[in-house]
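JOB MANIFEST
job_type = single_chain_structure
chain_count = 1
residues = 71
[input]
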Amino acid sequence: MPVYTYTCKDCGQVFDLLVGMTSEKVEPKCRKCGSKNIKKTFGAFNVGSSGDNSTSSISTCPTGTCPILKK
């Protein structure tokens, strides 16, 4: 199941949602304020190589200084 990152346009909360692949449509809403005024945004993800055991993180943060990705 895909995980999507959303930003609430009302309170600014950024959160991830695991979206199921069912025929049932569930309208996502902000976890903090309950608003449905949210926008899907880009989040961070990992890329693996099948040739070795290493993985590299790719940051999609506009400034490249996301606190969750600092080493």
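[summary]
The chain has a mean pLDDT of 74.
Residues 54 and 66 are 22 Å apart (CA to CA).
exit_status = 0
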